[in-house]
4-diphosphocytidyl-2-C-methyl-D-erythritol kinase
Amino acid sequence: MITFPSCKINLGLRITEKRPDGFHNLQSCFYPVGWGDILEIIPANEFSFGSSGLVIPGDSQHNLCVKAYNLVKADFDLPPVQMHLHKVVPIGAGLGGGSADAAFVLKSLNGQFELGLSVSQLEDYARMLGSDCAFFIQNRPLYCLEKGDVFSEISVDLKGYYIVLIYPNLVISTAEAYARVRPCQPETTLFEQLQRPMDTWRDTVHNDFEDSLFPKYPVLPHIKQQLYDAGAVYASMSGSGSTVYGIFNAPIVVPNQFSTYRVWEGEL
Ligand SMILES: C[C@@](CO)(OP(=O)(O)O)[C@H](O)COP(=O)(O)OP(=O)(O)OC[C@H]1O[C@@H](n2ccc(N)nc2=O)[C@H](O)[C@@H]1O
Ligand SMILES: Nc1ncnc2c1ncn2[C@@H]1O[C@H](COP(=O)(O)OP(=O)(O)O)[C@@H](O)[C@H]1O
């Protein structure tokens, strides 16, 4: 079976408090974007995992795809499979690409081997693999709370808008990004801010990671400004970076100054 694990952007990201378990509670809207990897899983005589495309740091036993398979195998009599991942989405980019791969492995195994797992059971497995992994089980716009793995409905529909993602070849560790943040409770919830028209978001919808990462990596605010200069209705860093995105009313000619970066553009 072949599937196409995609990625997400964060429409706003407020980090509200540090939890006793060391993680942080947050408010964010995760929104799916079509930039994706290619994942093939087929039955085989023995288990194997291979990858092509972008090089994934670490050995394959630590790949989230393998972890997802092993997690399910601990509870079900799964046959061996041959798994191949063609990696396209940049790594450590704030796009949740690795989490998407893991979630799609769970969904693919559930479908192929008729495990009968419900959406909520799949989300429980995904939560064990990473904070933003559970989102990719439903893979639709959701308002995310707590560690980013508790969901509620939000009516944000960006159909008809165009998005440009700029990855400036800069790997930012999620753990390091969280360690630099000072959590605080916002006066107005992100939920309320996102209900207002998109042309208000520039002044209201904020990614808290920008406060500590923009001074350290000046390329990031520079890209954000260039996206606004190119006509973006809203621009922001995604997650813990380093991808910066702009949302536009219509397709644009991506400015030349981004030619050394990895760029993806498409319809939302
Ligand atoms: C920041 C966000 C925002 O959407 O996305 P990315 O930028 O990574 O895509 C997510 O919270 C990333 O989720 P994910 O990448 O799954 O993180 P995990 O593997 O669970 O955790 C990596 C590390 O980040 C920190 N962490 C993560 C999530 C959270 N709510 N609080 C935290 O403090 C912890 O130090 C943890 O050890
Ligand atoms: N299949 C995978 N794809 C990407 N990264 C993976 C994968 N499996 C494990 N990882 C590890 O996860 C981390 C980055 O995860 P990723 O989801 O790409 O970043 P981010 O959460 O910033 O978008 C890296 O340390 C990487 O080695």
Remarks:
- Residues 10, 13, 23-24, 26, 28, 94-96, 99, 130-133, 147-148, 174-175, 178, 239-240 surround SUD (ligand 1) (CB under 6 Å).
